[in-house]
């Protein structure tokens, strides 16, 4: 009789020891940081960037109290973690945003181990500090405990980047095709640079195919950070031969990082929190939001060895020195050869804007087309020198590289770079054999010119949730038909990457997919609720490159009573409208325009305002919708108004013989824009007064890194030609000749 | 026009003003050791360390000591010494990357005084030796000499040189190939091989001579395409002792595609060299 209470007590005690609750309190607060000499707003948690490293052991219960001390709402997503849907941390999908002043508790059992991370899933907060390591340790008696790996000293390494610009503004600038970032990076790829590099034809061909300057990343960053610092140290007095395990997470909003080590080879032991059979490489690239566990050896006493992380665009780098003593450096990665990349892209791009992989069956990062741009692989820096010694840009590098030619050529083919086909799980990862298999295909699509990123040419706000059934196996075939690589992330599940390792295919939750690659992943639908599937480049996600997998017949989420409404909020967030405006304050008048655009719609108005009635005043307003994947075609309706006084009633005749005094006119119109090869915009417009106008124009022809040319001609016999020198992000000096207003010289301000 | 002129004048004046003002402000001076050898080192060290208006390095060849003068509000000695180390020169703070040191001209290769480094260098050397051994072993495999073996060997020599985009070696190997072709005793070839040999001989020779005559890898590659086709025809009838892989890259030859032969199944593309090393696939294995 008495044994029951005791038994219950005993059970209770066991469950307490087994299910240890580990609690963290996180205070989210605005802060100021200074990475460049200027103080800028950032978000710190418990006073630090990155957010504190949270450590749990498999079997614990995680309880995280989030105290929102910001003036805006926030959220935290547990990246790569299996947890109940309502703890996943996606506002409007799994919970409501955490309001200012609110304290919110996330609580979930820890049922896995590995290197993971956590970050805000609200707006752009991830860019300005809200990322941190999340380490889930194996139990000591875990049958998969790997001696010599899991018992090494570990260092959490959080990679990230910093921009002094407000990330919302960064996003807006990307949508407005601002090339300020290219100017900062020195990657304008202008005509004069092309001619100097002997690539004039390449550039013409590139623009003929309606491509803008190419790059491997979109945003210019002021600094790259390891654990919140440009240069970090781990000054533990290691002995020669000591090994250390780095748990690396890429918390950058849009930067891939190359990882290299001054002390020799890097041994990869885990990826996305899942063990892999150790593989030794010279270098690897870590995609946005991926995690890699690597083991490195300290080769000598009293020396600190540099572990270098270089963003893919190689503009800067960040490093951590492992050990104490004199610092052994590793060579920085040489600058990219953009015109070689452009040439490659030209070969791969069809005239209709689709990519052509020429039947090479590219997948799993095995063939990095960007390699044509890597001087350390191609050794091209020196070769270029020999062929075109008149090339001043290359000479600078050349001085250093001259002697290296021989070494490089000999060694370049020997650099071992990790790719996904080299990842192998130490355990069998096959999915239940009797489960029904459903195949879904996604084509990753994008439009660099308008910074539109989508799947199957639809942004989130144009797509419904994708219904899936619990118990089925989902096989997803992804094809990247865009010009950028995309780190695709699935919430709450690990998927198998079918990489030729058969039963031992590795498990991941982020898949980097390069342009033109096709990859297949599969996972068991074994959860409940709504799960995000999206590109983890923050600016691509905010542009709409997302989908939601929704389990049929899920239990209702008590945090979201009105799911349909919440989903609309989510859709809205990733298709915001963007304003751009510019005005040229010139000696012959004001020339300017303003536009509000989202993924499909454009509302724009242009004006030319003279300083007197003779010159006249005119505005044209167009409301249009972009059609098609490439968005080359935009039909619109418009409204024109002009007023001008010639003094005597002079009439103008257009090329169709239609007469017009243009003195006073306000008419409606319909018409269309179409982007022709070489990025020329053709516009045809019919007005309510029967007038017809055809026009050809192009802006921002890159003459030199900072000089842009523009021209316009139309059937009203109006024409314009101009040059602009870009001074800063928001200003330039310009000169232009306008058939109505004559020569002008002025200052252009743009937003 | 006037406005442009005034503006130009203003810009020029501004530029010359900044140019005149080439002094380091908030100057701080430090003397540190930088390892090096000669006059040439002095140039490289100072060029690497100097930063206009911010840092200046003056290195003494005899004492190996450098005077660093820098704007203390903008930089520090670590930043300067790091740049110097990346150019190949050790200091008490930084050890240069091994490849940067190796790239220094011979006269500049000062003695590195670190026995610690001894740990790193042999490790790399060992790797290299191992690699070299490996390569030798693989080429030693086909020992049984056939009559055409020198021809095939010379062909693979050209292929390997083109993989590395090494026009000089390719040319040398092509000369070997011409000699090898001339040295083939046709009469001792089996009948079927003989037939093919007769058919391809002229083209084979012509392509080999063209490759030998130039050191321009692009031109060599044009001929390498047809050369490969003919060697393939030969190899197909004569067979080798080891499997040979007939490989194809769809991008080569301006998108028309081109073939080559290799002894390894892994793709090492001779048409683009390291630029597109892994482009292509094996279309046939000849055993």
TrEMBL record, chain A:
Pfam families recorded: Cu-oxidase (PF00394), Cu-oxidase_2 (PF07731), Cu-oxidase_3 (PF07732)
Annotated ranges, domain Plastocyanin-like: 29-139, 214-309, 439-552
Gene3D superfamilies in alphabetical order: Cupredoxins - blue copper proteins
GO MF annotation terms: copper ion binding; oxidoreductase activity
CDD domains per the UniProt record, alphabetical: CuRO_1_CopA, CuRO_2_CopA, CuRO_3_CopA
InterPro entries from the UniProt entry: Cu-oxidase-like_N, Cu-oxidase_2nd, Cu-oxidase_C, Cu-oxidase_fam, Cu_oxidase_CS, Cu_oxidase_Cu_BS, Cupredoxin, CuRO_1_CopA
Top-rank lineage group of the source organism: Bacteria
Protein name listed in UniProt: Multicopper oxidase domain-containing protein
Organism ancestry: Bacteria, Pseudomonadati, Bacteroidota, Flavobacteriia, Flavobacteriales
Automatic annotation (TrEMBL), chain B:
Residues spanning the signal sequence: 1-21
Keyword Nucleotide-binding: no
SUPFAM superfamilies associated with the record: HMA, heavy metal-associated domain
PROSITE patterns cross-referenced by the UniProt entry: PROKAR_LIPOPROTEIN
Keyword rRNA-binding: no
One annotated GO molecular function: metal ion binding
Domain DUF3347: 151-238
Domain of life where this protein originates: Bacteria
Keywords of this entry: Signal
Coiled coil regions, renumbered to chain: none
Protein name: DUF3347 domain-containing protein
Species per Swiss-Prot/TrEMBL record: Flavobacterium shii
